[in-house]
Amino acid sequence: MKNAASLTTPATEISRQETVLLDAVDMEAIEDALCSAKALLDRVFDDDDVLPTDRALHWQLVRQLTSLQLEYQRIRAWLDEMQAQLSAREAVLRRRLCEALALVDQVSAAAWVSNQRDARADPALSVSVLGRFTVRCHGQEISLGSSKAGRAVFRYLVTLPGRSAPTEVLLEMFWPDREPQEARHKLHIAVSTLRQALAEGLGSTLGERDAIAFVDDRYILLPELPLELDADAFADRVAMGQRLEREGREGEAMAAYEAARAFYRGDFLAQDLYADWAAVQRARYEEMCLTLLGRLAGHYLGKTRYAECVTCCREILARDSFREDAYRQLMRCYARMGRRNQALREFQACQEVLRWELGVAPMHETVELYNRIVRQEPV
129 and 268 in contact (C-beta within 8 Å)? Predict the structure, then answer.
């Protein structure tokens, strides 16, 4: 039979286990402590020489520990259920918050556009050069006449500061291979046809003013007649968004970008695709559009508005399929949505485009993002 002294160390160990139970902070530590205490008791009393009173104490302790373990399991199950309910409620609240933020952005954009319109007189004449070229007077589309050269002169002048150009510039722009006298005659016919078409289309809006003035050997289109050019409205809103971003007013900046986005309905003067004078402007406006779409995509990704982020990235890639930053945004977006396979497919699409079109591999940053998604790490 074991003497009392031989039980001193196990008793000390049992006391230590009780201390662990009382001091344990997390539920996993509590369960480990309970299991360790029961195992220790089994080792201490696993002897035929143990007194019956000691065995009775053993079973009493085992019952108490078993009761504690069952209570722990009940509390753990309750906590797991509460966590699941909280997670579900968090998802609902997050979705509603995203919907509310989307609505706020839409209202902000509408208010911003409205304030901009209220700040200036509503022009009677509006010209669209982004996408389909149109000229409207009080909302009604008007014709620019039958002269192809006249319509080209209008498109050129309407995009210039002051809507004017010297005669020599127009001659060199549209009839560079003609003799000076012949080129001037063609310019005169083109302008006369255009002037007559504008007078008919504008009617009383033009009044006594000349549709195209000729002053100091310069042609001036619609002098003193306010008009709205969608390219100017687009550029103004992009500049406003950039200024608001610098001031830390992100929500208003994104509203300005969305307002700008609404004006960009297509490439700048697509019908003048091969005109050198239009190519520079076309590239400038397209780069502005790609930049604002990138800013919007990043904003929507940060706000967990994944559908809008995807739409912006798709618009970017439709215009420039080599933009790796757009592919990376799509990869992050799909990974956070739990669509890991789609995120990996976006990398493969990027890899194929770059290899077949440019003969290069994706950037290190893109490859690293791919590897993190493969390892199922947060992105």
Answer: yes
